[in-house]
Amino acid sequence: MIVYDPASTRAGRLEEEDHVQHPGQLADQVRQDTIDAAGKVIAVHLNYPSRAAQRGRTPAVPSYFLKPATSLALNGAELKRPQGVELLTVEGEVALVIGARARNISPENAWAHVGYVTAANDAGLADLRWADKGSNLRSKGVDGIAPIGPTLLPAQELDPAALRVRMWINGKLAQEDSTATLFFPFAQLVADLSRLMTLEPGDIILSGTPAGATVAQPGDVVEIEVDGVASDGASLTTGRLSNAVVDSGLVLESYGALPKLTDADRIDAWGSPEAAGLPADGAGEAKASGAPSSAVQTEDTRPVSVVTPELEEKLRSVGTATLSVQLRKRGMQNCHIEGLIPTKPGAKVVGTARTLRYIPAREDLFKTHGGGFNAQKRAVDSLRPGDILVMDARGEKGSGTLGDVLALRAQVLGAAAVITDGGIRDFGPVSAMDIPAWGANAHPAVLGRRHVPWSVDDTVACGGAAVQPGDVIVGDEDGIVVIPPALAEEVADDAVAQERMEAWVAERVAEGHAVDGLFPMNAEWTAKYKAAQSATGAAGQR
After folding, report:
1. N or C: which end of the chain has fewer CB within 10 A?
2. Where is pLDDT greater, at 4 or 392?
3. Is 425 annotated as a binding-site member?
4. Cα–chain-centroid distance for residue 263?
5. What angle, 0 to 180 degrees and rounded to 10, lies between the N-to-C axes of helices 488-510 and 309-316?
6. pLDDT recorded at residue 257
7. List of E strands, 110-163
């Protein structure tokens, strides 16, 4: 049995708790008494930037919905889908179990009131969401719809910003994210809730789900795990919370809301038109174009990168001015992305082009292609380490094409940069991030004012340059160049040689020699340079 501090339940204290005692013993497994102790179950609507990017909105403050304690279930319990329901959604989450009474506490002291951490599946019946949108009472409040467990981890031995949550469906990874990315850290959630309500020992907070939440079918086995590192360096894990989806015999009678769905609901639940079995070419009730969501594992159609660590090192060692010369020698005159301003002046980036194309705003097309998990969000969510997302906004500066949430998602995924010839919203927050970005200007307007997100990984135009997926992009304080992948290795090698030669020339100029005949080098100076290089090579071999 889980033992809570009896003193922490004393009533009437509205001031901040000055002393916290935690459960005296860690329960190895989540058992029925854990569920019985949950007076309140509070769930966060949006907390992961990856999920917010899919939903197309960024929360300014946390928002919540209440779930009855009877919605909780144990590891191994069946997730029952009633008759007539099509979409049973599954969401991996970190669950916080309150360990000491919390009323009007500060964020600095809030984490001390959390007793345990475990895994949770905030599953739901999307077909019933229409009737209680926002409150989610029927869709997320069904008996046994939210299993937790299997193991309780001691919260005070964990770094709350270094937990990982993962979800598998039939052994295939569907979700993975870190609590380091949260909009609202756990301590903020506890403190925020405690301002107006008392959190009692045993209460549970479901802290939000990342991108990849999807639909599970009868016969599917859904597994969720939360892991982290203890203060002594030991790895701690909840183990896999495993629950099978089954069809139940429950028939929903007509004296209440009955299942009702649109294609938009299906796309939202599954994560993409393809995953929902809907066309991506504009046909259907609610459409969207492009690649499948990362929530469903499909064939990877992203371009192969030619940028090896060795090639990246070479390209980082030379300037874009030198690369431009080498491209010109090969007949490549139009390889510059021009007219953009950087969020991080002086940044040097090397990476593989991924592309996103916008078309001019048109109300009917934005209605079918602008919402949900649209091309813009799919492009960002599919980025890999070293990718550079290049946006074709037609040079239209009258709205934002990149904002803080999508820039953050690109950074979390390891992208090298984002480049757009349109505007950048949230220019200050984007500039404060580690990931560099280039844009035509800062602009506060939303995307739909001038653009419809249309396609991912097509050939595009950006800043006057043609860019194809897989091209090598190099940017520095002089500008941005686009290198065809077939030329990248030889251009890099010759650029390194050119800069070595130019460094030698600069030394001669510093010695007082005139540039005539030296830059470019005539036969005499060329012979001297080759001799110097030979001598340097011979010295290096001794």
Report:
1. C
2. 392
3. yes
4. 25
5. 30
6. 84
7. 114-121, 124-125, 146-154
Question: Three-class SS of residue 283?
Answer: coil
Q: How far is CA 163 from the centre of its chain?
A: 15
Residue 130 has a CB neighbour count (10 Å cut-off) of 16
Is residue 293 scored above 60 in pLDDT? no
Q: How far apart are CA 191 and CA 104, in angstroms?
A: 7
Beta bridge partners of 456: 356
DSSP lists the bridge partners of residue 168 as: 173, 223
Task: Confirm or deny that 354 is annotated as ligand binding.
Answer: no
**Locate tokens 């380490």: which residue?**
385
Burial of 92 (0-12, 13-18, 19+ CB in 10 A): buried
Residue 406 assigned to a binding site: yes
Q: Which residue has the tokens 């609590």?
A: 179
By CB atoms closer than 10 A (0-12, 13-18, 19+), residue 513 is middle
Secondary structure element (H or E) that encloses residue 367, with its range = helix 363-369
Q: Residue 340 and residue 337: Cα distance in Å, rounded? A: 8
Strand partners, 474: 350, 481
- Sole residue written with tokens 């809570």: 4
Phi and psi at 529, nearest 5°, equal -65, -45
pLDDT tens-digit readout, 21-59: 333 334 468 889 999 999 999 999 999 999 888 777 788
Does the annotation place 281 within a ligand binding site?
Answer: no
By the 10 Å C-beta count (0-12 exposed, 13-18 middle, 19+ buried), 218 is classed as middle
User: CB–CB of 207/105 below 8 Å?
Assistant: no
Q: How many residues does the chain have?
A: 542
Alpha carbon separation from 387 to 51, 306, 472 (Å, rounded): 20, 11, 9
Asked if 86 contacts 258 with a C-beta cutoff of 8 angstroms, the reply is no
- Note whether 425 and 446 are within 8 A (CB): yes
Say what the pLDDT of residue 519 is: 86
Q: How far apart are CA 335 and CA 56, in angstroms?
A: 33
| Distance set, CA 533 to CA 171, 269, 539, 542 (Å) | 58, 64, 10, 15
Token pair 């290049």 in the structure block, residue: 390
**Per-residue pLDDT reduced to its tens digit, 158-212:** 999 999 999 999 999 999 999 999 999 999 999 999 999 999 999 999 999 999 9
Half-sphere exposure (Cβ direction) of 65: Cα atoms closer than 13 Å: 17
Residues 314 and 500: beta-carbon distance below 8 Å: no
The answer to the question of whether 26 is labelled as a binding residue is no
Residue with tokens 């099978």: 244
Q: What is the pLDDT of residues 297-352, one digit of tens each?
A: 334 567 889 999 999 999 999 999 999 999 999 999 999 999 999 999 999 999 99
- 404 carries a ligand binding annotation: yes
Spatial distance between the Cα atoms of 204 and 201, rounded to a whole number of angstroms: 9
State pLDDT tens for residues 61-72.
999 999 999 999
Residue type, 540: G
Q: Mean pLDDT across the stretch 434-439?
A: 96
